[in-house]
Each structure stands twice: as C-alpha cells, then as structure tokens.
Automatic annotation (TrEMBL):
GO BP terms: protein transport; transmembrane transport
Signal peptide residue numbers: none
Name of this protein: TonB family protein
Domain TonB C-terminal: 29-125
Similarity comment text for this entry: Belongs to the TonB family.
GO cellular component: plasma membrane protein complex
PANTHER family for this protein: PROTEIN TONB (PTHR33446:SF2), PROTEIN TONB-RELATED (PTHR33446)
Membrane topology (UniProt): Single-pass membrane protein
Subcellular compartments: Cell inner membrane
Keywords on record: Cell inner membrane, Cell membrane, Membrane, Protein transport, Transmembrane, Transmembrane helix, Transport
Record has Nucleotide-binding as a keyword: no
Organism: Marilutibacter maris
C-alpha cells in the first residue's frame, strides 16, 4: 500500500484547484470618439466672397489613426466648383485626436458640413474695388 503524507495530498489538491480558476479578465479600456484639435476655416475665394457668392459643401471625411484626414469625398456640392475645392483643401489640412478602440487609435468616418457665407462689406472687398480701374 502506497502511503503519501497528508501534506503532500493537500498541496496537490491546492494546485489542482488553483489551475481551474478562470483567468482574470483585462480591464475594459473605454473607447473614445474623434475630437477636433485644429480645424481652421478654409480659404474663402475672395472674388466669390466679394461677389456675394456663397454655399454649403458637405463632405465625408475619413480620419486615420494618426489624426489626419486620409480620404475626403464631397457628398453635397455647393454648386460652385471653387467653393467645393476650397472646402476639400481646407479640411485636408485639419488635425484631430483620433478615435480609439481598446486603447488603440483607429480610423473613423465623419460628416463635415462647411458653410461659405459672404461677408458684409469686408475691408478686403472694399480695397479690391478701390484698386480695380473703373470700367466705362
């Protein structure tokens, strides 16, 4: 008959039970949404602004994990190609804090509406008018 010490049996039993425990789950890291860091308005073409031409451009913008736009698609044109180009160029220069999932930065798509509202009697427009020769 093989006799083992009670202490050895208790140790073996303790090891067996400890090996059956479920692993401790990693703490859940909350996701974060994209946040604007630097989003200056686009250059408004002076000739259009002074001619009282405005409009709204709607864009779909993919912001990459580095926080920079990686793709821009115009989903709603202003009807004025120069304004559409200005909006596209402006948003491509923007900077964001990227969205995160499980603590890692990820790409996220956002919709960006951009309004071009002609200024009321802008100093630049008045200077432009004064510098143009009178046309008779």
């Amino acid at each position: 008959m093989n006799r083992q010490s009670p202490l050895l049996l208790i140790s073996v039993a303790a090891l067996a039970v400890s090996g059956c425990r479920a692993p401790v789950p990693e703490p859940e890291i909350p996701s974060t949404e994209i946040a604007a860091i630097h989003t200056p308005p686009p250059d408004y073409p002076l000739e259009l602004a002074c001619s009282d031409i405005g409009g709204k451009v709607v864009m779909q913008v993919v912001v990459g994990p580095e926080g920079r736009p990686t793709a821009v698609t115009i989903t709603g044109s202003s009807g004025v190609p120069e304004l559409d180009r200005a909006a596209d160029a402006g948003v491509r220069a923007w900077e964001f804090k990227p969205a995160t999932r499980h603590g890692k930065p990820v790409s996220q798509t956002i919709q960006v509406p951009m309004n071009f509202t002609p200024p009321q009697e802008s100093e630049l427009c008045l200077q432009r008018e004064q510098s143009e020769p009178d046309q008779l």
